[in-house]
């Protein structure tokens, strides 16, 4: 029997494959669909204190190998997700996860406090959508991250982790890991959409989306190799004390296998869920199980992080 279960923040998940925050997880009907799917958890849309409509349309496009968007954090406000977490928890035997993306430290404190009294099993702090106009990505500012983590650590009664933007310079991994290690952060999720990409329609000589002059977040297979490197670096820097969740271009069992080999304890499915819908979770899980069977791995810990190098 092949076991693809995992544990994140002390919470057992039936499989290591669940939905990423963002795609189709904003409303209660959206969350019911995820709860009924094979996603091993129900991750909710990143929420702010007040409801937000998000950026002007068009703000999302499917690309051949991924997705491109500047949604601008449309969400119903944290009070709705507090309510939804209770409804979903009562109806399904599946961990519900909150994603918090407050606009200020005070907002984040308020939202974390509100989730203390909910059945959410853990929280993913999202310190920076690349698409919030006028707001820098906190994940690129170690001092701001330090302050934010300090603040939420003081108030959160739930285990929490942090969703990180992609880093490209080895020094940045070390600096961010050092800050994160100061706090009771249980996991990091690597990585958020690559911010401020530009996709062009050459025939029309025009951008594809309206916000920010056409700049938006890139997701899917385009970002997989950098995302794998981010998983690998944080896995090495955290030495099994902080779990790593991989996200970015997980469409197949091979993608999931590669993330786990790089050090991920779980993978999230974002673009692929947006494009393929609920059946994608079972597809990835079945394919991963098949690969493990062919390699005689009975559980993911048998190969997690065990990527071979050439030296
Ligand atoms: C949005 C995009 C992100 O990458 C994120 O982390 C949060 C929100 C958005 O545009 O809605």
Structure classification = alpha/beta
CATH classification, class level: Alpha Beta
| Count of separate structural domains | 1
Query: What's the number of helices?
Result: 9
Determine the CATH topology. TIM Barrel
Query: Within the largest sheet, what's the order of strands?
Result: 3-16-15-10-9-8-7-4
Strand-residue proportion: 15-25%
What is the correct CATH architecture? Alpha-Beta Barrel
Question: What keywords describe this structure?
Answer:
TIM Barrel, 16 strands, binds 3,4-dihydroxybenzoic acid, eight-stranded parallel sheet, 9 helices, 22% strand, alpha/beta, 35% helix
Give a structural overview.
An eight-stranded parallel β-sheet has the order 3-16-15-10-9-8-7-4. Strands 5-6-14-11 form a four-stranded antiparallel β-sheet. It has a two-stranded antiparallel sheet with strand order 1-2. With 311 residues, the protein is of the alpha/beta class. Helix 5 links the parallel strand 9 and strand 10. The protein has a single domain, classed as TIM Barrel (Alpha-Beta Barrel), CATH 3.20.20.70. Helix 3 runs parallel beside helix 4, helix 5 packs across helix 6 and helix 7 packs across helix 9. The longest helix is centred in the C-terminal third of the chain and has 16 residues. The structure holds 3,4-dihydroxybenzoic acid. The site of 3,4-dihydroxybenzoic acid has 14 residues, from loops.
